[in-house]
Amino acid sequence: MDGAHDMGGVPWSEPVRPEPDEPMFHAEWERRAFAITMAMGMPGGWNIDMSRFARENRPPEEYLAKSYYQIWLAGLERLMLERGLIASDEVEAGKPLHPTKPVAKTLTPAHVAAVLHRGGPTEREAKNPARFAVGDWVRARTIHPPTHTRLPRYVRGHVGTVEMLHGVHVFPDSNSLGNENPQWLYTVTFDGRELWGPDGDASVKTSVDAWESYLEPA
Amino acid sequence: MTDHDHHEHDPSELSETELRVRALETILTEKGYVDPATLDLLIETYETKVGPRNGARVVARAWADPTYRARLLKEATPAIAELGYAGRQGEHIVALENTTILHNMVVCTLCSCYPWPVLGLPPIWYKSAPYRSKAVKDPRGVLADFGFDLPAGTGIRVWDSTAEIRYLVLPMRPAGTDGWSEERLEALVTRDSMIGTGLPKQPHEIA
Asked: pTM (2 decimals)?
């Protein structure tokens, strides 16, 4: 979806502000919000693209007004509400009010290290040859799906070259709707001036990682 | 997206968020979906175990051992796993070599993708709107925000992490470090040098 989360190249008046010796979390609630989100992945059963869509799919004003972990929290609440794991009145009341919906499994302390170490690899077996090869010219399609996508706006319509092939990976646009539909994944590199016009920095090249259906021959 | 609550929100809003997190934790614990001991362990893991010192070990090993460096640049995920780092948000890692003519910088314009097993959780500026918007259009301006400049003639290569590939920058080994042990080299490796928004420390800075 087109949204405020898609920030590449958007004008912004403030500089980047590094924070010396910054703490991992800036408030106790951030620690808990992070940990709850991580721990609920297993009982919740959603995938990473569903999580991302739950975070980004909100009005730009709301997305920009929330801090990073407030967005995580809002995304988590939505995922749980959609699946009936919690209800709005429970959140307001601060306690369970309805029967607990059974879940297949939960994350126990004994399994934390192994689950983190395993992660969630997204590479899948290739069933078709890759359409593009390293060095090919490709154009990023101009698309504006109302659903989740990982093709940023600033490259749409622009021509770049294939720099790497990464194998076949789960396709986020469909995975956010529950269907992995794996596709070849490429690193596609664009010249600064192709993306930003004659005033762009010619000494800069920028790449995105793009699934095959995001691309057409150029 | 705001950088900090305390910059942008008044205290009553902040406490509203705190109350909401507390309410959720209570509900989820009572329903049996989360175990508070699991939450504590997750926090402890990312506050004390998974962080940029892991990446510094990888970089120092690559600086000290040419065969490791070659393995890392060819296929980073197994090379990094040799040191015990793997998994969540680092399932598919690519290492990017800085040279005298090319400087690499990593961003995630769409959210906050970052190689957790080697760098830990991302710093707040990495997740902020200014970095996510500017890195792909004006990376030299970003470097200026970090207080440094590259020599004229050095090209910049920006990697937007839009998929599940995670990027780790292999910075150039500082001059004057011949014969240094890996442990000593590790102390030169900064987090930002592995994102591409900084350079490693110079030998005199850690003397």
From this structure: 0.96
